[in-house]
Each structure stands twice: as structure tokens, then as C-alpha cells.
């Protein structure tokens, strides 16, 4: 690094104000790039996918994230935000390089696939034209940063100084813009005085409104991130384990969770029992932690999280079994209306979606599954092209033998249960997210059950709107 006394931290990098590159412009990177532009920085987003770069350059976000298209359009138009496929252009442009590429679960293993992070970091380091800071943001197993540091040291061009630090991200899909502009905390792992000062400049806006900065070493920063997700996952599997007891004892897990939540040491969030967690983060992150903890000989974390994962996956099987039971023992040729495909509301992300997983399993058992999701039909169709997709709740429900609510979209709360009853074959509904008003549905004549409540007999049903032959399970 430059050693003369700079007037501002970024001047030590040769810049009056740090310019930012964001490598990987998916859910995390596109949001981070737009938020950095909103905070007043000149930003270049880099992605190896030319279609993504072309779309973002036009102000089009290739996925559904509330508020993000507006932010991207504003800053593409203001000239503060650019996108490119060319890492050479980005390294020449920027002083602070955020690594935001994917770290998916490796095929056939619980481990994280670190090839994208390694390649992105290498491509930045080897193309640096001036001093700069490489900031890992992707979620990685503990030890990754240290390994990347030695790779960077071996390839950075002669005469150029660089640091590699870790700044994990905690944004939630569906709330990504707000979470990025006003984060709960900023974790900075492995900083020197210089990189700390530059990062304080980069995050001046959230710091000014009181966002705490946690300074720590690289492994702690990496572990804060995966531990946060592991804790959230554990809360969900805990309540789903208690839900099983509630069912057996005739108690109500929703009321129980509300009562638990009043204890501020526990809190109400992430105590919604149901189909369990999915998405591009929680499942793969706890598995990567199981794997890494195992490698480190830390058996307690591995065995705890193994249980969390197993309980979570068993919720999917539970709902599949409930649907089979509601159909009289076999779903073969039975029509099942599925409400929800996304892994949660306010996103079109279907990565490891419990909803799609259940829908696909029932399809494989011979059911005629028709899925409606307000935003995720296209992404779901790309992943499961053989399933049938509807444009409305009514279309998915028409002639159904059972309806499954698998994602808790707000829209489903305004369904007119009485009107819907008129178009189904059998008025049976399984609310696998405990998101609907049971009394409203029961009053409209539906056999309604949620999860973690006293079981309701869903079968056998007397046909009311359809021919008897539809009810005879084909063996
Ligand atoms: N999605 C979230 O809500 C979220 C939140 C916090 C942390 N994270 C973490 O952030 C990381 C990214 O997640 P995501 O959901 O944004 O993934 P994503 O798959 O949506 O995006 C990754 C992007 O990186 C691009 N890419 C891959 N290799 C590249 C390279 N060498 N150069 C340039 N671009 C490259 C891909 O084309 C893709 O557009 C993961 O580690 C994830 O765990 C995600
Ligand atoms: O009480 C609850 C709360 C959530 N879920 C499910 O849990 C999953 C994950 O939800 P959420 O955490 O809101 O989604 P993500 O956007 O994947 O965000 C998580 O993963 C991100 C990526 O690592 C982190 O940055 C976030 O802090 C962390 O919340 C979804 O399938 C939800 O349906 C439940 O089943 N019950």
C-alpha cells in the first residue's frame, strides 16, 4: 500500500473516493451493486453471464426482488452504475472489489462448491492494475479466506498491494434492498487499519444511522455468517419438532409459538411451524457447516445440524403423506392444486424450494399437480418443466381433490373460500404454512388442516361436486 499520509483512507488507494466493483450480480451482487450506487459510489457490476449483464445494463432485473428494479434503473440512468462481463474493465475501474458469486452445495456432498469464489478472486487479483481491497461477501466455509489470501499473494501483479478481507452479507430475499441499505450489522473480518478505514468510508451511510460494525479475524467473520443461518434453521426445526408433539397431544403450535415469542430471550420470529426451510441459503449453508465442522473434528455442531436438516426434510415427507392420506391412500390420477412454488413469499427463487419438492414428489406418484404461484411460475417451470402451471388460484383449484398451500403468499389470505368450494371436486385443504384462517375455511365447508394442530380427518370424503369415479383411487 502507499505509505505517505493520505488525507482520506481511499486516497491511500490512489482514489479520492473508492470506486466499487461487484463480481457476481445475482440476488446478492445485483442488490449490493445498486445499494452502493444509492450510497453515492461509482459502481461496476461484473458477471460472467452475458444475458444477465445485458438485462441489468437496460435496467431490467432478471429475477423478482421488490424495489430492486427501481433502484437499478435510477442508477443506470444516473450513470453511477454500470455492468460488464469484462473483469479487466472492472479491475481497472475500481479500488474495492466485492466478491458476490455463488457458493452452491457441491454435487454428491454436503460441502460448498468454492470453485466460483476461487475463480472470481483469482480473476480480480491477477488483473489488478492498481492497489485495491478484495472483499469477500459470498457465504463460505471457515478457512476459505485464509486459503484465498495465499492464492492472491501468489498471483497479484508485482508492485501492486492488495488486502483480502471478509464482509459477510445477511440480506433476506424479498427484503434485500432494505436489508442492504440498512443492515443489522456490518461484520469486517481480517482488516488492517487501512482496509478498516476504507470500509468505514464505503459503509458511511449505514454507520451514520447507527449500524454497529463488528471487527474480527477472518475465521470469525466467516463463522458469524454460517452460524446466523444455522441458528435460524435450528429455530425452525425446533418449532417443527414441537409441532409434532402438539399434533400428538392435541395442542396448537401457533398459539404456543406466540406465547414463546413474548419471552424476548426467545422472540417470535422464525417460530412458524410448517413445511420448513428452503432456498439458496439455509439448506446449503447448514450442510456446508456440517461438512466443515466434521473436517475440523467439531462433532457437536455437525450432529446438532444433522438433526436440524433431517427434521426439516421430514416436514416435506409429512406433507406428501398428508396429501396421500387426503386422497384415500394413493394420489394416482388424483388432481392436486398447489398454491405456491417459491421457497418463501416475495421472491421468485425456487432453489431448494420445499413447495416444488412436494409438488414434484406427488407428480412422480402419478398425481395431476397444478401449481399456482404469483411470481415464481417461470422459474419453477424452468426447473420442473413437466409440471403444470396455472395463472390463478382458481385455475389451480378447478376440479382438485385436495389443495395444498405450500408458500404463504399474502394473496392466499384473500381467497374467497366459499366461491372456491364451488369449483373443486372435494373441499379439502392442507395449509402446510399455517398461514390461512382455519375458521373462515371451515365455516365455508372445507375440511381444513394445518401442521402442528390436532389432526382432522381429511378422508374419506363424500363426493359433492363431481362424479363418483373421480374418488375411486386407482391402484
Ligand atoms: N441470495 C441471498 O439472499 C444471499 C444472501 C446473503 C448471502 N448470500 C451468498 O451470496 C453468494 C451469492 O448468492 P446469490 O444468491 O446471489 O447467487 P446467484 O447464483 O444468484 O448469483 C451468483 C452470480 O455469480 C455469477 N458468477 C459466477 N462466477 C462468476 C465469475 N467468475 N465472474 C463473474 N460472475 C460470476 C453467476 O453468473 C451469477 O449471476 C452465495 O455465497 C450466497 O450464499 C446470498
Ligand atoms: O418461521 C419460519 C421462518 C422461515 N421459514 C422458512 O425458512 C426459509 C428461509 O427464510 P429466510 O431466512 O427468510 O430466507 P432467505 O432469504 O434465504 O434468508 C436467509 O438466508 C440468507 C442467505 O444466507 C441470509 O442472508 C438471511 O439472513 C437468512 O434469513 C424459507 O423457506 C421460509 O419459508 C420457516 O419455515 N419458518
UniProtKB/TrEMBL annotation:
Positions contributing to substrate binding: 170-173, 225, 270-274, 278, 344
- As recorded in UniProt, its EC number(s) are 1.1.1.22
Write down the top EC class of this protein: oxidoreductase
| SMART domains per record | UDPG_MGDP_dh_C
Record keyword tRNA-binding present: no
Biological process (GO), any one: polysaccharide biosynthetic process
- Catalytic residues at 281
Functional description taken from the UniProt entry? Catalyzes the conversion of UDP-glucose into UDP-glucuronate, one of the precursors of teichuronic acid.
SUPFAM superfamilies, per this entry? 6-phosphogluconate dehydrogenase C-terminal domain-like (SSF48179), NAD(P)-binding Rossmann-fold domains (SSF51735), UDP-glucose/GDP-mannose dehydrogenase C-terminal domain (SSF52413)
Q: Supply one GO molecular-function term.
A: NAD binding
Query: Keywords for this entry?
Result: NAD, Oxidoreductase
Q: Tell me if NAD is a UniProt keyword of this record.
A: yes
Q: What is this protein called?
A: UDP-glucose 6-dehydrogenase
Q: Give me the residues that bind NAD(+), please.
A: 47, 52, 103, 139, 173, 284, 351
Q: Which reaction does it catalyse?
A: UDP-alpha-D-glucose + 2 NAD(+) + H2O = UDP-alpha-D-glucuronate + 2 NADH + 3 H(+)
Write out the similarity annotation.
Belongs to the UDP-glucose/GDP-mannose dehydrogenase family.
Pathway assigned in UniProt: Nucleotide-sugar biosynthesis; UDP-alpha-D-glucuronate biosynthesis; UDP-alpha-D-glucuronate from UDP-alpha-D-glucose: step 1/1
Report the InterPro entries cross-referenced here: 6-PGluconate_DH-like_C_sf (IPR008927), NAD(P)-bd_dom_sf (IPR036291), UDP-Glc/GDP-Man (IPR017476), UDP-Glc/GDP-Man_DH_C (IPR014027), UDP-Glc/GDP-Man_DH_C_sf (IPR036220), UDP-Glc/GDP-Man_DH_dimer (IPR014026), UDP-Glc/GDP-Man_DH_N (IPR001732), UDPglc_DH_bac (IPR028357)
- Give residue ranges for domain UDP-glucose/GDP-mannose dehydrogenase C-terminal: 337-438
Q: Which Gene3D superfamilies match?
A: Cytochrome c1, transmembrane anchor, C-terminal, NAD(P)-binding Rossmann-like Domain
Amino acid at each position: 500500500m502507499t505509505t505517505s499520509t493520505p488525507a482520506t483512507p481511499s486516497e491511500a488507494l490512489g482514489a479520492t473516493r473508492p470506486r466499487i466493483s461487484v463480481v457476481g450480480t445475482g440476488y446478492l451482487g445485483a442488490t449490493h451493486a445498486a445499494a452502493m450506487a444509492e450510497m453515492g459510489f461509482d459502481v461496476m457490476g461484473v458477471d460472467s453471464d452475458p444475458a444477465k449483464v445485458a438485462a441489468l445494463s437496460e435496467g431490467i432485473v432478471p429475477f423478482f426482488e421488490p424495489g430492486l428494479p427501481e433502484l437499478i434503473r435510477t442508477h443506470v440512468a444516473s450513470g453511477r452504475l454500470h455492468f460488464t462481463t469484462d473483469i479487466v474493465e472492472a479491475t481497472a475501474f475500481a479500488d474495492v472489489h466485492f466478491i458476490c458469486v455463488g457458493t452452491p452445495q457441491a454435487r454428491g456432498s454436503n460441502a460448498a462448491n468454492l470453485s466460483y469464489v476461487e475463480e472470481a478472486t483469482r480473476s480480480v487479483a491477477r488483473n489488478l492494475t492498481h492497489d485495491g481491497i478484495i472483499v469477500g461477501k459470498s457465504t463460505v466455509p471457515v478457512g476459505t479466506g485464509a486459503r484465498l489470501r495465499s492464492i492472491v499473494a501468489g498471483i497479484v501483479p508485482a508492485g501492486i498491494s492488495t488486502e483480502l478481507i471478509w464482509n459477510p452479507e445477511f440480506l433476506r430475499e424479498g427484503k434485500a434492498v432494505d436489508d442492504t441499505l440498512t443492515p443489522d450489522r456490518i461484520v469486517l473480518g481480517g482488516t488492517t487499519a487501512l482496509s478498516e478505514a476504507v470500509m468505514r468510508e464505503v459503509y458511511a451511510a449505514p454507520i451514520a444511522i447507527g449500524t454497529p460494525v463488528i471487527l474480527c479475524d477472518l475465521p470469525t467473520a466467516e463463522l458469524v455468517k454460517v452460524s446466523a443461518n444455522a441458528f435460524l434453521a435450528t429455530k425452525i426445526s425446533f418449532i417443527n419438532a414441537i409441532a409434532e408433539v402438539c399434533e400428538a397431544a392435541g395442542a396448537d403450535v401457533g398459539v404456543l409459538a406466540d406465547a414463546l415469542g413474548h419471552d424476548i430471550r426467545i422472540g417470535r420470529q422464525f417460530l412458524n411451524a410448517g413445511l420448513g426451510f428452503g432456498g439458496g441459503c439455509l439448506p446449503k449453508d447448514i450442510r456446508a457447516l456440517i461438512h466443515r465442522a466434521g473436517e475440523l473434528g467439531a462433532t457437536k455442531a455437525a450432529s446438532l445440524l444433522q438433526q436440524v436438516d433431517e427434521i426439516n426434510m421430514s416436514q416435506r415427507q409429512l406433507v406428501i403423506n398428508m396429501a396421500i392420506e387426503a386422497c384415500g391412500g394413493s394420489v394416482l390420477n388424483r388432481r392436486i392444486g398447489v398454491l405456491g412454488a417459491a421457497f418463501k413469499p416475495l421472491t421468485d427463487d425456487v432453489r431448494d424450494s420445499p413447495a416444488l419438492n412436494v409438488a414434484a414428489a406427488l407428480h412422480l406418484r402419478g398425481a395431476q399437480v397444478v401449481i399456482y404461484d404469483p411470481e415464481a411460475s417461470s422459474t419453477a417451470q424452468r426447473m420442473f418443466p413437466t409440471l403444470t402451471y396455472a395463472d390463478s388460484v382458481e385455475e389451480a383449484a378447478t376440479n382438485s381433490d385436495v389443495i395444498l398451500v405450500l408458500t404463504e403468499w399474502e394473496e392466499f389470505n384473500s381467497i374467497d373460500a366459499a366461491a372456491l368450494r364451488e369449483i373443486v371436486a372435494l373441499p379439502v385443504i392442507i395449509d402446510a404454512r399455517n398461514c390461512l384462517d382455519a375458521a373462515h375455511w371451515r365455516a365455508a365447508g372445507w375440511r381444513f388442516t394445518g401442521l402442528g394442530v390436532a389432526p382432522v380427518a381429511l378422508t374419506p370424503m363424500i363426493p359433492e361436486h363431481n362424479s363418483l369415479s373421480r374418488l375411486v383411487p386407482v391402484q
